[in-house]
Amino acid sequence: MQVGEVSTLLHRGMEYHRAGRLEEAHKCYSRVLAVDPTHADALNLLGTIAGERNRFAKAVELFDQAIRRKPREPVYRNNLGNTLIKAKEFDLAVEQLEEAVRLRPDYADAWCNLAIAYSACGEIEEARQTLQKVRAIDPKNKRVPLLLAQLEARSGMSDRAVDYFRQVFASRPSLAALQGILISQKATPDMPEIAEAETILRESELGVQQRSTLLHALAKAYDDIGRHEEAFEQAVIGKRLEGITFDLDRHLEWVAKTRSVFDGQFFRDRADFGNPSEVPVFIVGMPRSGTTLVEQIIASHPRAHGAGELPHLKRIAGAVGAKLPGPMMDEQALRTLSRFRAAELADLYLLRLTKNSGDTARACDKAPLNGLHLGVAALLFPRAKILYCRRNAIDTCVSIFMQKFASVHSYSYDLKTLGRYYGSFAELMDHWLQLFPDSIREVKYEDTVADLEKQARGIIDFLGLEWEDACLQFQKTDRPVMTASKWQVRQPVYTSSVQKWRRYGKHLKPLIDGLGRHATEAGYEKL
Fold first, then answer.
1. Buried b vs exposed e over 336-368: b needs ≥16 C-beta within 10 Å?
2. Are 182 and 220 within one domain?
3. Strand pairing partners for 464?
4. Tens digit of pLDDT for each residue in 368-415?
5. Cβ neighbours, 10 Å, residue 476
6. For 276, what's the count of Cα atoms within 13 Å in the CB-facing half-sphere?
7. pTM of the predicted model as reported, rounded to 2 decimal places
8. What residues contact residue 95 under an 8 Å CB cut-off, 6+ apart?
9. CATH for 315
10. Residue 225 and residue 332 in one domain
11. What share of residues in the chain are helix, strand, coil (percent, to 5)?
């Protein structure tokens, strides 16, 4: 194939790519690589497709290869940085994006992505200043107003965020701005955006993801204003529309294997493993169980830091043989992990955890489903503290179902599957409680909202810190919140979410069947 033919093939792939025909684009780029395995543009474009398909590890690998061929190409580094943001590797994203703008100081798109990465790392002021740089470079940049709105939303500043979203929507209507208005505050019946969303859903041609996202935003708004039947209907339609499935049998097999491998003898044989640091605090539980509230209480203490939801423990678990999702657990790899390697991995994790913590005594990792990986956490940090957040099982599952979570939470797209997943998580947590009774404290959501001070004092005491009254004023703590609870963390605690599931009781039989005894314990028999 001649050079001209390679160029033609690459451009044909780009045309397919722009048209959304990813399979045809992938074939074109792959044919280019078959002729020239070092073709940097083809590697970069294949990485872009992998990122669009949420295959982040593959995308990073391809972008890395492209950068090795052309290390001074800022576009490749911008694409890599953007993918690392999606993969929640925010500190690594910052490194790549800072290099991209160093190579090309007028690269507005890279500056915008850098602002997102700074925000996710907790560097809110850096993010604001970065967006101001974009305005200086490109005063009419269309991304900046929306990013400013999203920045305030991440900060939990809901009133300011909604004002920005409304300004964006008024000047250039977009689904992202409309969604932001609906989910960044408690909706009221007279909000014009509710009718706007209804009209768009009824009259506009939307992609699957766009429609599903707007349906979930509308479901949240309906729930806020008491239109509960319609709220549930919108969530169900949004879930079915995406057609996402979850291999529950494979997951249950993985959980059973975890309980089998990580037993008392496993840890007795490795009593001298890991790092003795008491800095790490793991806040775990099912999503929507109060993990954000607990982190905000702790992060309000002057000697504690909230690092948010970090992906690192899950990745370390996968690297040592406990990958999820993925193939069955590699028991041999886990049992042959050396003391030296365990210490090395602990040091790497601690470096990531404390990157932005300053001189604090405790740093929190609030990835809720780290509960699946507490065996690895205990191996790396035998003296770490674990806070297990629990909430009424049916309330938890209904709240999860009503949210639009990323596909990594694909268990949440079917009510019966969600119930069985909850049960397996609760049973695995019971296993950890038996193994590490002194390292784990249960925090019940209902108890916390009923008596905040009592529970907050218990949490702070469990972490070995002196009490600070600031922990009761967590809604005033200025830090980014990268969860579905963004706007709620700036509010005082409220009890309206307790027993909320009863609004939807007649729709919940599949969930109740999946939960089994956990539904009875949650009060279902009293319905």
1. ebeeeebeebbeebbebbbbbbeebbbbbbbbb
2. yes
3. none
4. 999 999 999 999 999 999 999 999 999 999 999 999 887 778 999 999
5. 10
6. 2
7. 0.85
8. none
9. 3.40.50.300
10. no
11. 65, 5, 30
